[in-house]
Every structure is written in C-alpha cells, then in structure tokens.
C-alpha cells in the first residue's frame, strides 16, 4: 500500500513540473521555430568568448526581431530581441545597454543574465534554448 501512495505522490509531483520553460505563452510574442549555430571564432561572435559581452543577431528567420546571446560566465543565455510586454510594432525592438536591454516602447530595462525586468511587468524576456556544441560552437534554438 505504501508503494502505491509513493507512486501517486511521485506522479502528482512530476505532472506539476513545467516541461517547456522556453514556451512562456507570451500573448505578444509568437513561437517561431529556428536554429542557428554560432562559431565564436568568427569576428562577429568573438565577444561571446568573454563574460558579459552580449551579441545581437538580426539574421532573417532567427527569432522574431533577432536574438541576443550572452556569455554569463557559467554558460550562455539567449533571448528574443523584441519587447516582451508590447505588441509587435516599430518600437518593440530591444536596445543593448551593457549587460541589459531596454525596450524602446516603454523604457523598461531587462537583465541579460536572468531575463527579468528592473520594474514590475507581466512577462520576462522570451528565452531560447542554448546548447554548447564543441569548444567554439553554440547552438541557439526554439
């Protein structure tokens, strides 16, 4: 009987886990599938070899308005380059500001380490998956 109770508790616990933290159900930002391999030996991406040097990638088909990738010192983060709390428009792009990005529509600042805003907002930055492939290759995908 105790085995069944433990099994029930384990199933209940595991079913409550969020299996897809990268699909944040943001009503402003659609989920587009993409994948990009980034070679950090290339001059455009060499800042990613060092901590706290974000790179914006605005290649067509990568994210909605591009992506922003940063080496955090313990790994990499990648976020959508669109304001997470604004409908897509001409002002909804993010501007790099050191280790933060700022939404051009409402001037809210977001950390590229955590994706969280400096003020209370509904949505954090939209994260993308990052996989280190080899010594100098990073794959970012949704």
What's the layout of helices and strands?
Elements: H1 2-15, E1 35-39, E2 55-57, E3 67-71, E4 76-80, E5 94-97, E6 100-103, E7 109-111, E8 129-132, E9 137-141
Antiparallel strand pairs: 1-9, 2-3, 3-4, 5-6, 6-7, 8-9
Keywords: 2Fe-2S, Iron, Iron-sulfur, Metal-binding
Protein name: Rieske domain-containing protein
Organism: Flavobacterium arundinis
Number of domains: 1
Gap from first CA to last CA: 43 Å
What's the order of the H and E elements? HEEEEEEEEE
The percentage helix is under 10%
Poorly predicted ranges (pLDDT <50, ≥5 residues)? 2-20
Keywords: 2Fe-2S, Iron, Iron-sulfur, Metal-binding
Protein name: Rieske domain-containing protein
Domain Rieske: 52-139
What keyword list fits this structure?
disordered N terminus, 142 residues, mainly beta, 3-stranded antiparallel beta sheet
Question: What does this protein look like?
Answer:
InterPro entries: Rieske_2Fe-2S, Rieske_2Fe-2S_sf. Residues 52-139 form the Rieske domain. This is Rieske domain-containing protein. Keywords: 2Fe-2S, Iron, Iron-sulfur, Metal-binding. By secondary structure, the protein is mainly β. The chain has a single domain (21-141), classed as Rieske [2Fe-2S] iron-sulphur domain (Rieske Iron-sulfur Protein, 3-layer Sandwich), CATH 2.102.10.10. Helices cover 10% and strands 27% of the residues. The protein has one helix at 2-15, and strands at 35-39, 55-57, 67-71, 76-80, 94-97, 100-103, 109-111, 129-132, 137-141. It is globular. Mean pLDDT is 88; it is low at 2-20.
């Amino acid at each position: 009987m105790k085995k069944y109770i433990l099994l029930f508790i384990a199933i209940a616990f595991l079913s409550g886990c969020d299996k897809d933290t990268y699909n944040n159900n943001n009503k402003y930002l659609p989920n587009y599938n993409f994948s990009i391999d980034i070679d950090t030996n290339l001059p455009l991406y060499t800042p990613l070899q060092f901590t706290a040097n974000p790179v914006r990638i605005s290649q067509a088909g990568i994210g909605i308005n591009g992506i922003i990738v940063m080496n955090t010192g313990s790994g990499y983060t990648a976020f959508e380059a669109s304001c997470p709390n604004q409908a897509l428009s001409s002002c909804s792009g993010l501007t790099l500001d050191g280790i933060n990005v700022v939404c051009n529509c409402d001037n809210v600042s977001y950390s590229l380490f955590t994706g969280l805003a400096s003020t209370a907002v509904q949505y954090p930055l939209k994260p993308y998956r990052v996989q280190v492939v080899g010594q100098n290759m990073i794959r970012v995908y949704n």
